Amino acid sequence: MTRSTGFSFIAPLLVLMVVAFNAPIVYMLGLAFWEKGRGFTLEHYEGLVEAPVYLRVLGNTMRIALIATLANIVIGYPLAHWMRGLGSRGRMIAIALVVLPFWVSILVRTYAWIVVLGNGGIVNRALQWSGLTDSPVSFLYNELGVTIGMANVLLPFLVLPLFAAMLRIDDRLLQAAASLGAPPRTIFWKVYFPLTLPALAAGSLLVFILCLGFYVTPAILGGGRVPMISNLLDTLINQIPRWEQASAISTILLIVTLAIFAAYRRLDRKASA
Amino acid sequence: MNRESIGGSIWARRGLAAMGIFGLVFLTVPLVIVIPMSFSSARALTFPPPSLSLRWYETFFGDPRWMEAMWTSVLVAAISSVAALLLGGLAAYGLRRGTFKGRDWAEGNFMAPLIVPTIIVAIALYLALAKVGLLGSLLGLVVAHTLLNVPLVMMVLGVAIREFDQRIEQVAWSLGASWGYTMRKIVLPNLAPSVFAAWIFAFIGSFDEVIVTSFIAGKFETVPKKMFNELILEVNPTITAVATLLIAFTVLALAAVAIVLRRAGKLKDTVV
């Protein structure tokens, strides 16, 4: 045991990660640039550009990810801000109500929307009862349902870090602004909001990254009609085996994700500094 | 300084409260609705349920395929959560206390399964396991779940180790205690609440894992994999009972974590 450096503590995990995580990913990246008997090739990428279906799925994914992220900001920011102003007891309850769904299986939370948004579900019942519509509104198996489900599943990822950042804001700063005669609106927009902006941007980027790779929710709430990148990958692996094509798309998704994550890290450091 | 001058008028505060409560409702209502629906006597998912019954629970517990899936899930979660706890705990200790070069790089690599889209991990493991002939093996499944849960363990234990005063360990060493003795008698008892929390999180993480499992499990069925496959084909009310059981399981597990951490006075650090 080398107490001096401590490297031996991480060695067992390092071996496992290299064998079972790094090597498979490198192997997958390799497949995307390889053709049997011919060696290095870019043809799997050329195939992607030529097929309009891939570009359509990519556009679809970007649009849904963007809308779900915006919905998260619109719902999450006021929620976190409201939680900051609660008393300690109310705050604990609110935190518990945000943390609990975070830990409940994503399948359960996605399935719950089928129950809530279905034709006989509580939302359609309420809409018909109130006379807003005569026939059930179809929320499921279209883009609307997928977006609602994804926004719901990812909301805690935005709210928890944003709330933590808001708690770090010193009340005396706001009091100083008030004592200098700033009206509440000015205090919010000129003092409070700018202080929360790095955390909001970091959280939004995180949600956006997670949206890009989302698989379960579009598969269930989209009913096969709202293909996103992950579902396309599933098809290319499990249904029409075209592993090289799947590897090529995975490589692009991985690079985009890591690039956005690098931006996230930079903002997150700023937010927690 | 009164609140009004900072928080705005009463209407502004009421508006904010309405938006905050809407956010909480949006998060929790779907889960709350599932519970009464699981006791419905009807096949259709009509709210409110026409009458109450336990038929979907009977279907679940009476179906040998569901029961087998449950035991597979429990087995994989039990082994992989302990493996993640051991490997991740040791690594977290090495990263916090160690002085070797490349610690940031190593930590980034260990945390990567959290950032790399799970679908990519699933595809990479699928291709690699197919290559070495371990696709559809219990070993492949356990290893995959272990590495997916290591980041959770390291996040919880990393914070706990950083907050535990290193000088206490140094005192033990200077008094002649061996490394193993210090670990057993000083470090572990102090970290016990966090170790328990990390283990529960890893267990839940493995028990609920669906994407990688669907790709690499082959003939093995786990509860989430079976649930996912059934949901893609058709909506079956048995799922509502399964969903309610999973919610109950999560609530109980998190309550256990909250109680243990609260006793240790560590609840606030771990939650946010």
UniProtKB/TrEMBL annotation, chain B:
Keywords: Cell inner membrane, Cell membrane, Membrane, Transmembrane, Transmembrane helix, Transport. It is found in: Cell inner membrane; Cell membrane. Residues 70-258 form the ABC transmembrane type-1 domain. The chain crosses the membrane at residues 16-39, 70-96, 108-129, 135-161, 191-218, 238-261. It is a multi-pass membrane protein. Coiled coil: none annotated. Pfam families: BPD_transp_1. PANTHER family: INNER MEMBRANE ABC TRANSPORTER PERMEASE PROTEIN YDCV (PTHR43357). Belongs to the binding-protein-dependent transport system permease family. This is ABC transporter permease. It comes from Reyranella aquatilis. The lineage of its organism: Bacteria, Pseudomonadati, Pseudomonadota, Alphaproteobacteria, Hyphomicrobiales.
